[in-house]
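User: Predict the full complex structure for these chains.
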Amino acid sequence: MPDQQGDLRLAVLGVGMMGAFHADRLSRVVRGARVTVINDARAEQAEKIAGQIPGARVEPDPLAAIAAEDVDAVVIASPGRFHAEQVAACLDRGIPVLAEKPLTTDAESAYRIVQQEAALPSPLIQVGFMRRFDTEYVQLRELIMSGDIGEPLLLHCVHRNPAARPEFDSSMMITDSVVHEVDVVRFLLGEEITAVQVIKPAPTPGTPDGQSDPMLVLLTTEGGRVATVEIFARSGAGYQVRTELVGSAGSALIGLDRGMITTGPGTAGVQRSEAIAPTFIERFATAYTTELQRFVDAARAGRIDGPGTWDGYAAAAVCEAGVAAVRTGERVQVSLQARP
Amino acid sequence: MPDQQGDLRLAVLGVGMMGAFHADRLSRVVRGARVTVINDARAEQAEKIAGQIPGARVEPDPLAAIAAEDVDAVVIASPGRFHAEQVAACLDRGIPVLAEKPLTTDAESAYRIVQQEAALPSPLIQVGFMRRFDTEYVQLRELIMSGDIGEPLLLHCVHRNPAARPEFDSSMMITDSVVHEVDVVRFLLGEEITAVQVIKPAPTPGTPDGQSDPMLVLLTTEGGRVATVEIFARSGAGYQVRTELVGSAGSALIGLDRGMITTGPGTAGVQRSEAIAPTFIERFATAYTTELQRFVDAARAGRIDGPGTWDGYAAAAVCEAGVAAVRTGERVQVSLQARP
Amino acid sequence: MPDQQGDLRLAVLGVGMMGAFHADRLSRVVRGARVTVINDARAEQAEKIAGQIPGARVEPDPLAAIAAEDVDAVVIASPGRFHAEQVAACLDRGIPVLAEKPLTTDAESAYRIVQQEAALPSPLIQVGFMRRFDTEYVQLRELIMSGDIGEPLLLHCVHRNPAARPEFDSSMMITDSVVHEVDVVRFLLGEEITAVQVIKPAPTPGTPDGQSDPMLVLLTTEGGRVATVEIFARSGAGYQVRTELVGSAGSALIGLDRGMITTGPGTAGVQRSEAIAPTFIERFATAYTTELQRFVDAARAGRIDGPGTWDGYAAAAVCEAGVAAVRTGERVQVSLQARP
Amino acid sequence: MPDQQGDLRLAVLGVGMMGAFHADRLSRVVRGARVTVINDARAEQAEKIAGQIPGARVEPDPLAAIAAEDVDAVVIASPGRFHAEQVAACLDRGIPVLAEKPLTTDAESAYRIVQQEAALPSPLIQVGFMRRFDTEYVQLRELIMSGDIGEPLLLHCVHRNPAARPEFDSSMMITDSVVHEVDVVRFLLGEEITAVQVIKPAPTPGTPDGQSDPMLVLLTTEGGRVATVEIFARSGAGYQVRTELVGSAGSALIGLDRGMITTGPGTAGVQRSEAIAPTFIERFATAYTTELQRFVDAARAGRIDGPGTWDGYAAAAVCEAGVAAVRTGERVQVSLQARP
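Assistant: Here is the predicted structure of the four-chain assembly.
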């Protein structure tokens, strides 16, 4: 384990699109992390990604990467068929893992991991269901927990991708795409899914022979709640992920890129409502962080990267005129000095 | 200057609400930064904030803080009347500064800073107009630059705060609030403001005697473009910041917490449109970052902080049933093993 | 048949909520119609409604009402079990009928009506599926017909009522509520429904014992297209009727009380779009009609019912000042004469 | 005056675009009205429009039209310069008038009309400010009256037309377009306008030389309230009419073609809200009227014009299957008889 001051040193196993994305964020955006080891079955790809990360080296053997001295934790983004062995090795060494979904390729091997981990003093394996960290899903879960929407009864999910490769078949639409909704349903409702049904409508033009796209997946939970999932991998219409919860006291919709929209009794009859940011913190928090990060990045090179003194001066001159305009009620000219 | 591997060491001058917010983000969220020195005229406040930041010490003299050996750059969030002296000291030492607005309290002193900085080889002072880092303002600027909206003609700005202290008078509404729109107009249109007019409607109940709230501010630019600004400090209705650009080929509105809404010719007549995320990266980038950051934070303490193996196993079991349901067209039961 | 100048004389059979609503609109809003005969099994109710309609009389026998000399056409809003006999009597006499749904209570008797009508030279029976006359449904159908949305693949329907009486059981949810979606699916897709499945989630609190509310109804069509219908009679959240069509080239949503929202490729990537009224006709057509109708209604009594000369004078005075303000660029006072 | 049973007989003076639109609606849509006389300075145009209206004749002299025996009321849509004389003639005869705006071309002549009318026992002249009959404006006015939005403080109006003829100059933008906002401000706030200022930004490409388009018009009322009006005649972006009221307890926006959107304190913090139709009446009232009108129009010719018995039969067959599906939980086939 690193001490509290030191950065966490990470190995990233598998640097295809997803792993490379993780490696990049861990090395440029996340605070307190350092990618030290890159592993990929394709040597060239490993070299390429490692070359983009200061201080990272390539380790061709994934198990050696997991065992390396300069590795405190592991991110597994390799193909699913390697996960069982790699995760088990991390558990053996006792270091934390972020494993991209799927945890393993089948329920049986996943359950063996569950059992192996249960023998440890505390859990070490996190699975990459990243929607649990999305602001809107968190909001929706909090709304359910609050009871303000009554008993949750139904979930309507829409999951559309713009396009898919021909080999992305109906089974992969379940295991690679609907798997997110499977976790969302469990996360939001807090109970297990007990049955699955799949309805296969006439396919969209361009669907490979023998496959179905779109499909409707019906999930039933322990408590008898039902979720519908439209999965449409070749929708041609951007990436749309929507979830509507229907409760006994209203409904809530997320995924229109505009925060949560609720319906239910309001101050003036039944309403459709969106929250408004109570203060500038909520509205501009991300802008502040971006401002600070870019300032820090530039300042480390002795530069700035944002509005400068001329902008400050011009604003001051306009505000002086503005204050005079408040006082006089007249239109006040602004005159700027020459720009050096 | 720190070397490329080391963190940038920062002094934060003034740790009222804004400075404390910056100090917190610099020490917890921003990568590559470390707050080493805290300064505030109120000793107790300085101690309190410094106590929340590992490795930070209090320096009671702002000029000593600027001169300190363990300071590579400075964030100035002290009251505006101290800015001129503090910024000048940073320029003297030649280190980067992020100065909260206002740069200084009047145009004359701000222009002296401009001149002083112009004598240096490169600019060192950034002013805290953080809206330039807000995704929506950046989008709007890019739209203007693209020419797709034609000539920019008018800007309608709304700036509402939920409430204000009694001493927040009409002049401060200009210098503390409208100053953001002043910069927005300059940023979006890329030209200077040449005249200001203020219209004072009947005030909202609760406005201090002799003051006006709301007010309408009219800004005219070099190119004859006009911006209207509604400033309403005691609106009682959350924090609402909206900007609508009217161009010769359409209009664009930001600030409804849902991305940019454009109007103009579309594929089926004149339309109001919002962009849809093209891929999961745009839609869930922030969720991925949050996932990684929380994983790293927990992993440094040997823990995880997210969905675990049971979630991975349960998803695998449901997906197995789902794949069977695709094949059979029947409703398939999911049976889970006992949870350890 | 009435001649072209004369009003159509109507009998309304059954004046419960729906029939009374029709009778009122026919006598006050619809042009060219006159309600002459009211029939209801409940004599008191018939008298009450007839009393509200100038020129209408009560006829206690529905078949006598259909046969009456002063009846050119019939609106049937009686309970469904009477429809078969009443519709047949209208067909015998050869006069047009608007029959509220259901046409009859079962498919067999409905088919006998179909056959009886087929023997006539032209159809005479219209069924009360009024959504076919709703602007948004018409727009959605035209979009499908245009081909701009590609092949229709899926329909997601939501049908929520605020509340329901205890005797409104799960079967009535199908025959009284989902029947609208049944017609919508046939209307939009232009093909017959070939299979139905109903999913019964855990019921909302307050659902009568042994009943299911909400339910999910899955409709499959000849062409293999699938529609999902959420029917929720006791939603507690207003009257919400939404329909989303998913096509191979985009999707379209109606029912958010804001016109049709489409997603698909746009001028700037994938977009969510709403049409904007091209001219004032589209935007204010209804206002113009209301204005004219209220003017006519008042003028028949020698009065007016809208803005008057003072409003016209005041507007003229302000516009005169406005034209001066255009010319001078100055603020121009408006001074009004004394109001008589 | 017609008796209560008879239709109101109308003369329409001036059948350019607006007058022809009125004549058409009066003869086809409005109940209880009949257009008997058409007048236009252009004989050919008068003949053309009269030819489209059963029972209408041409009268070349407007004063003769006003005096005609078969005229109970008059709609004036002639050019504004004829209004003073025509309106006065109607007052002399004592019959109701709907005069398109402007009432007359200048404030002085309008005031003479006010005085002439004031001598009559009751007002007879209605001015064509049709926005007062628009659902959204009525809603907004009711909201203000209710006090729920606090004191009205500001109005922001946007009025965009897609295009304008070259002769549509800046003065006409006031008298023909902004005149609507002038009335809206008076209607919503219930007080007179006391001052006008016009701001002229750089014009959009294509604006005739010496003219300004867009313009900003500032209206101040007796109570010190302020309205901003963006008038943009050559916006190229459809017909957009928006009005936002800012009150001391929230704000309300109409004109986005989706009902009134309010902001203010809600059940969960500050919210942006839209009302949801409480029952099917509000949601589908217009569809019902259209259904009935088309049924009546067709029935007068012995036909129907809407869904027929086959639609009723098919729906019955699907619902029978649906009821079976509720009972069995299984997928139930629908089998239809042969279509005759």
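The first helix of chain B runs from residue 17 to 28.
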